[in-house]
Design goal:
Number of domains: 1
Number of helices: 5
CATH topology: Ribosomal Protein S5, domain 2
Strand content: 25-35%
CATH superfamily: GHMP Kinase, N-terminal domain
Largest sheet: 6 strands, mixed
Oligomer: single chain
CATH class: Alpha Beta
Structural class: alpha+beta
């Protein structure tokens, strides 16, 4: 954190202006590309300002977990690639990348986006395993929201591979999509001084006091939350953050639907 940079940032925010000229409740321009990875069952690249994230879906079959023998398996992973930002280093996944994967996973899982019962092939013996990888190609903040959009777009675009003798036929795709019921999206609101803003850049994230990521369903109901930062939040802060997240989730969801041809 740079105290002088933060003070300058707060002074601008108190006047309703961000350092890149946006309003406090404004996202950077967003573009979504679908089906960008030919080797994946589903994929998407979402660009928001200078942040660019790719999500890919791979599917395999495996034994179900002992406590959910009629449910398919969904797994998320994320990695902060050095090519996306000079501050990232090679090596095992850091706490930041683990948090990104877990928060995106939680929103989709707790929002019951996927019908895991329909991913069961033989109860107690064989189920589909859906693996979602989220990777930043260029990072300038807000990886959870952009990664969440990419993951959800990739899931909705995915086609299940062909199954023969209880084994996946490599390189094949059917016309059957992954059974999905909902479209929960994460929206992160950060607090700097007394100001609440969405879609934070890397510089804004480095100077935040508190952060709240909220996963929102299409009907406006909440399905998951994750707080970060050292500062506490008042009831007023929480109410304003929730209102912002609900409103912005509707905007983001329309962009996802438009990219998928669902709008």
């Amino acid at each position: 954190m740079n105290p002088a940079e933060k003070e300058h940032m707060i002074e601008a925010l108190n006047k309703g202006i961000r350092l890149d000229g946006r309003k406090k409740d404004e996202f950077r321009p967003i573009t979504i590309e679908v089906g960008t990875l030919s080797t994946a069952e589903g994929s998407a690249i979402v660009t928001c300002g200078e942040t660019k994230v790719v999500a890919g879906i791979k599917m395999d079959v495996a034994k179900p977990y002992p406590d959910s023998q009629e449910d398919g398996v969904m797994m998320f992973s994320s990695e902060m690639l050095p090519l996306s930002n000079p501050n990232f280093e090679m090596g095992p996944p850091k706490i930041e990348s683990i948090e990104v994967a877990r928060v995106i996973d939680r929103g989709i899982r707790e929002g019951h986006a996927m019908d895991t019962k329909k991913l069961c092939i033989t109860p107690g013996e064989l189920v589909w395993n859906v693996m979602v990888d989220v990777l930043p190609l260029n990072f300038d903040g807000n990886l959870i929201d952009i990664g969440g959009m990419a993951a959800l777009t990739a899931l909705y675009s995915a086609k299940m591979p062909k199954l023969e003798n209880d084994k996946v036929v490599p390189g094949t795709k059917t016309e059957e999509g992954i059974p999905l019921n909902a479209m929960p999206l994460p929206v992160t609101v950060i607090k700097i001084g007394d100001n609440l803003i969405v879609d934070p850049t890397e510089a804004e994230m480095q100077n935040l006091d508190a952060r709240l990521t909220i996963a929102v369903l299409e009907d406006g109901n909440l399905c998951a939350m994750q707080k970060g930062g050292n500062a506490s939040l008042t009831v007023k802060d929480l109410n304003e953050m929730l209102d912002l997240a609900i409103a912005k989730s509707q905007e983001l969801r329309q962009k996802v639907k438009a990219a998928l041809g669902m709008a």
